[in-house]
Design a protein that fits this description.
12 strands, 4-stranded antiparallel beta sheet, single chain, 2 domains, alpha+beta, about 50% helix, about 300 residues, Aminoglycoside 3'-phosphotransferase, Chain: A, domain 2
Length: about 300
C-alpha cells in the first residue's frame, strides 16, 4: 500500500478522486489498465486513465457472467460505470481476503504449502468456466482483438503478432531464440489442438489472488482484456511460471507447484506447460522490453530455459 502523502497519480486519477470526494486515497492496486482505490467497506473505485467506456461496458458483461458461475471464490463485479472529464471509472464490489504474497509471508511452512495448493486448485477450477460462443481467442471485445475458428490457428496468429514487435530484440538477447520460434511453430499445431472453450484468465499469478482466513482462495481478481477463450491449461502454466514474478515467492515454491502438477498430469502435461511457457514469454516480450525491466528478465530467463530443453 502506498502512503497517501507520498503517492503520486496521473492528473486524470487525481481529478476522479477529488470528484468522488476521496481526500485520503488508499491504493489497493495498480495494473496495466488502471488504479484501484478503497471507496467504502463494500466498494472500490477502479480508474482507467486513457480508457474507453465502451470497453468497460463489455467488461461488465463478462463480470456478470462470472458472477453467475458456481465458483468457490469471488470474482470482480462492476456495479456502476461512471466518467469524469472524459476519464472512465467503475464502482466495483470490494472482494474479501488478503493478498496472496502477504498471506504467505505470515504463514507457517505448512500453511504456506496449503495456500500454494489452494492456488493451484483455483487454477484448475478456472478451467471449469466454459464458453459457448464460436470463436477461439480474445474474449473481451477491444480494438485489434484477434479470433480464429481453431485454438491452434489463434496461437500461431498471436505468436506472429508478438514476434513482429519483439523478435529483433529477443534474437539479440537470447542465443538460439529462433529455435524456440521453430519449436513453437511445429509443436502448436501438432500438440495443442483444443476442443474445449474455457475462459482463460491469462494473468493468473499471486498479485491477482486473495486468500481467506482458512488459507483458501477467497477471490481471483482482474479479469481483463487479456482473457481468452481456449485451453484451460494456460492458467496452469501461469500458476507455475508466473509465481516467481512476485518477490514473495521462490523457485522452491515453484518446484512445489511443479511436483503437484506432474503428479496430477504426468509428463504429457508438463510438456504442454513448457510450450505455453515459451509462448507466454514471447507474448510478454514486447511490453516487458519497454515498460518492465524485471518482467523482461523473466522473459529472457524463460526463453533460455526452453532453449536448454529443446537443444
Amino acid at each position: 500500500m502506498e502512503n497517501p502523502e507520498e503517492a503520486s497519480y496521473p492528473d486524470e486519477v487525481t481529478a476522479v478522486l477529488e470528484h468522488e470526494g476521496i481526500d485520503e486515497p488508499e491504493l489497493l492496486g495498480k495494473g496495466g489498465e488502471g488504479h484501484i482505490f478503497v471507496r467504502s467497506d463494500t466498494d472500490v473505485l477502479k480508474i482507467y486513465p486513457g480508457g474507453e467506456q465502451s470497453y468497460l461496458e463489455r467488461l461488465k458483461t463478462v463480470h456478470g457472467g462470472l458472477a453467475r458461475r458456481n465458483l468457490s471464490f469471488e470474482t470482480p463485479r462492476i456495479k456502476e460505470i461512471r466518467t469524469h472529464e472524459g476519464t472512465p471509472y467503475t464502482v466495483e464490489r470490494r472482494l474479501s481476503g488478503t493478498p496472496m504474497a502477504q498471506a504467505c509471508a505470515k504463514a507457517t511452512p505448512q500453511d504456506r504449502q496449503t495456500i500454494l495448493l489452494a492456488f493451484l486448485d483455483a487454477a484448475y477450477e478456472l478451467g471449469t468456466v466454459q464458453v459457448s460462443r464460436p470463436p477461439y481467442g480474445d474474449y473481451v471485445e477491444h480494438d485489434g482483438m484477434l479470433n480464429s475458428k481453431s485454438w491452434t490457428d489463434y496461437l500461431l496468429l498471436k505468436l506472429d503478432e508478438a514476434l513482429a514487435k519483439s523478435r529483433e530484440r529477443l534474437t539479440a538477447d537470447v542465443e538460439d531464440f529462433d529455435k524456440v520460434v521453430d519449436y513453437l511453430r511445429e509443436y502448436i499445431p501438432a500438440n495443442l489442438a483444443c476442443e474445449e472453450k474455457a475462459l482463460v484468465h491469462n494473468d493468473f499469478w499471486p498479485a491477482n489472488v486473495l486468500v481467506g482466513e482458512e488459507n483458501n482462495i477467497s477471490a481471483v481478481l482482474d479479469y481483463s482484456v487479456l482473457a481468452v477463450i481456449g485451453d484451460s491449461r494456460m492458467d496452469l502454466c501461469g500458476a507455475l511460471n508466473y509465481l516467481v514474478l512476485d518477490d514473495g515467492f521462490t523457485r522452491h515454491d515453484a518446484d512445489f507447484i511443479r511436483a503437484h502438477l506432474k503428479f496430477r498430469g504426468g509428463d504429457e502435461l508438463m510438456e504442454v506447460l513448457d510450450a505455453y511457457y515459451a509462448y507466454s514469454a514471447i507474448f510478454w516480450g514486447e511490453s516487458a522490453t519497454f515498460e518492465d525491466p524485471l518482467l523482461y528478465e523473466w522473459v529472457k530467463t524463460a526463453l533460455k530455459i526452453i532453449v536448454g530443453k529443446i537443444t
